[in-house]
Amino acid sequence: MPSEGTAAEPALPEGRFDGREAFGGIVRAALSSAARQGWRELVLSDPDFADWPLGERASIEALQAWSATGRRFILLAQRFDVVERSHARLVPWRRMWDHIVECRTVRAEAGNGVPSAIWTPEWFALRTDPERSRGVCGVDPRARRELREAIDESWREGRPAFPASTLGL
Questions:
Q1: pLDDT tens track of the chain, all 169 residues?
Q2: Pick the CATH number of 15-156 from 3.40.50.1220, 3.40.50.150, 3.30.870.10, 3.30.450.40
Q3: Is the pTM of this model over 0.70?
Q4: Which residues does 152 contact at the CB level (< 8 Å), separation at least 6?
Q5: How many Å apart are CA 102 and CA 151, to the nearest integer?
Q6: For the chain, what are the domain ranges?
């Protein structure tokens, strides 16, 4: 299904995906689409974001292009230490855009855990098997709503994390 915009603009993927490379491509496409289409909200959720391409220059450039007044970026994880170690470019971007970024951490024991997913008001991607990077993505309103409900449930169980800066006394 083509996305709105110019003919040269690639469509977001729909359907099943399998493998780390496919998932990395989906993350890159989502970040690029967020910038091109001006999505108001972008939610990334994963236990630790270890195998996400969030530290790549292209990912940060897409996030930078997307960042604007009225945007909201949500990161939900069980732990952020991997993000701080493995996605070095994301850390300063997060610091600069603190006013649009909200981060929460959820204990591994809480509920059903944190889904490995991307959610937007128009599209979603969900890894049903994060170990093998298998899942599904698309625009289905019901699936998108169910995913958002699962993310919101984890969000409510979480607490603020991954601060833009740490203040000491």
A1: 444 444 445 689 999 999 999 999 999 999 999 999 999 999 999 999 999 999 999 999 999 999 987 899 999 999 999 999 999 999 999 999 999 999 999 987 755 689 999 999 999 999 999 999 999 999 999 999 999 999 999 999 999 999 987 655 4
A2: 3.30.870.10
A3: yes
A4: none
A5: 13
A6: 15-156
